[in-house]
Write a structure and sequence with these properties.
single chain; alpha/beta; Rossmann fold; seven-stranded mixed sheet; two-stranded antiparallel sheet; 9 strands; binds S-adenosylmethionine; cytoplasm
Length: 266
């Protein structure tokens, strides 16, 4: 559906207000990647020069307006052409990775303020997007990190964002990890991943299995999306921190005002 006048509408009304984003994920559960062959699919940090140039042209480096000014990110901002341009002119899948979502912001802030939670641990960031939460984990001393996102372009954005923050890029897995055998992780992170009911159900089941098999700790950042607040996972959560969102994030997220970090305790 291409009814939105541009990315400004996309940013103001994320997730189903205009239908574009929700559709992108729900239609197949796999990335809407326009080319059959994706050289950087899988784990790794291969940067296709053309795509790198595209990302650099159409994003702005920023550290303002979020809960974690210590992290620089390439994001879609009002100074970018596609903030204002018609969304259907964007040549790739919807750029979730170009927004630093409120759930991820809270989770990243929490890790930076409480490095003991990640120091020396193996960490998996599911639905990493721009990679900020995985970057926060790395800055806080995580031993091993895997960022996972089904969008291969997110994989490239994460690599660029690592470089921006003078970090050696960590591996990025661009397969659907929910379909793979479970590895052992000390800590699994999910920032703003409960925005679709089917995805929320799949994640809930996967996380329960993960905790049961490996005693993994799971932290979830969420700004109170209905698909999360109304989900049965609510009975298995302990609130660990709540943050007031910065004004720019509030404006871009249709009036959300806070974001919370939850400890999943099945
Ligand atoms: C709302 S964004 C959150 C990004 C980031 N965690 C943040 O808070 O800024 C959701 C991300 O999850 C990714 N995603 C959706 N379904 C996924 C799945 N099954 N496995 C991994 N990533 C997924 C999307 O591509 C998108 O980048």
């Amino acid at each position: 559906m291409a009814l939105c006048p541009g990315w400004r509408a996309f940013a103001l009304f994320p997730f189903n207000r205009c239908g574009v984003l929700g559709k992108a994920v729900r239609s197949t559960g796999l990335p809407l990647f326009p080319w059959g062959h994706c050289p950087w699919r899988g784990t790794g940090s291969f940067l296709d020069p053309e795509m790198k140039a595209f990302l650099e042209e159409h994003t702005e480096v920023t550290r303002s307006g979020s809960l974690t000014p210590e992290i620089q990110l390439r994001l879609l901002t009002p100074r970018c052409k596609f903030w204002w341009e018609r969304a259907d002119l964007w040549p790739h899948s919807d750029p979730y990775w170009a927004i630093y979502w409120p759930g991820g912001q809270a989770l990243s802030r929490y890790l930076l303020d409480n490095p003991d939670i990640v120091r020396g641990r193996s960490v998996l960031d599911i639905g990493s997007g721009c990679g900020a939460t995985a970057i926060a984990a790395k800055m806080s001393g995580a031993l091993r990190i895997l960022a996972n996102d089904i969008d291969p372009i997110a994989g490239m954005a994460i690599t660029l964002n690592c470089e921006l923050n003078r970090l050696n890029p960590f591996p990025v897995l661009t397969k659907n990890i929910l379909d793979l055998a479970q590895d052992k992780w000390d800590l699994v992170l999910l920032g703003d991943m409960f925005y679709d009911e089917d995805l929320a159900d799949s994640l809930h089941q996967w996380l329960k299995n993960c905790c049961q098999a490996h005693r993994t700790r799971v932290l979830i950042g969420d700004p109170g999306r209905p698909q999360f607040s109304g989900h049965s996972i609510q009975h298995q959560l302990l609130k660990v921190a709540e943050y007031s969102l910065p004004e720019p994030t509030r404006q871009e997220n249709n009036g959300l005002t806070t974001s919370t970090v939850w400890d999943f305790q099945p």
